[in-house]
Design the sequence.
């Protein structure tokens, strides 16, 4: 199914949550579910769920509901999970090591094919079956393997120059832990920023002054 660039970001950001809930339903033997039942489990309204799914053509039948396994696979296809995009990770310090070791990339649409770091004690060591390479080998590796996504677990000050090199290597997407604002300098890049501190501060605010959950 082709992706529609007019779909709003709030809808897109709900898709992984639907995917997770549907996986749990499937694993628990649920074969069919209505939008009302799904709304009760997810804390959304039934109309919101129907509106979200209608953005992609709709998947249910009135009076019958949704076939769980079919909907699970349809949302996975919309998210591109079955395409398995090759990715590389730059910066194998504490954060990068945790991401490389514990993130199940292949169930989320990616395949981690390369690790890079410039720390002498890391270069040449093996993690999860992959040898950590120096960033000086980045261009040659990309010419050979053609990755399309980069995970940045590097200091903010190191990011601008590396992003320039990665874009020149035809990297299209960035999972960005570096706190460098890639899209300010490169609006054409597809970026998902991860700010753990922002999430923690949001929790702090909500504990002091609870707010309505976003639909």
Sequence:
């Amino acid at each position: 199914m082709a992706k529609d660039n007019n779909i709003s970001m709030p809808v897109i950001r709900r898709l992984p949550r639907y995917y997770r809930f549907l996986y749990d339903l499937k694993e628990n033997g649920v074969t069919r579910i209505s939008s009302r039942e799904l709304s009760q489990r997810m804390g959304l309204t039934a109309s919101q769920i129907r509106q979200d799914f209608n953005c992609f053509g709709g998947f249910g039948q009135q009076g019958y509901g949704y076939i769980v396994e079919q909907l699970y696979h349809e949302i996975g296809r919309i998210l591109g999970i079955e395409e398995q995009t090759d990715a590389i990770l730059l910066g194998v310090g504490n954060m990068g090591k945790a991401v490389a070791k514990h993130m199940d990339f292949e169930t989320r649409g990616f395949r981690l094919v390369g690790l890079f770091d410039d720390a002498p004690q890391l270069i040449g060591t093996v993690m999860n079956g992959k040898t950590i390479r120096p960033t000086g080998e980045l261009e040659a590796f990309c010419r050979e393997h053609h990755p399309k996504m980069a995970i940045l677990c590097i200091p903010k000050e190191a990011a601008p120059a590396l992003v320039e090199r990665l874009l020149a290597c035809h990297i299209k997407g960035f999972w960005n832990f570096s706190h460098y604002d890639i899209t300010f300098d490169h609006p054409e890049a597809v970026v998902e920023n991860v700010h753990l501190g922002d999430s923690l501060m949001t929790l702090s605010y909500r504990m002091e002054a609870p707010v309505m959950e976003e639909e």
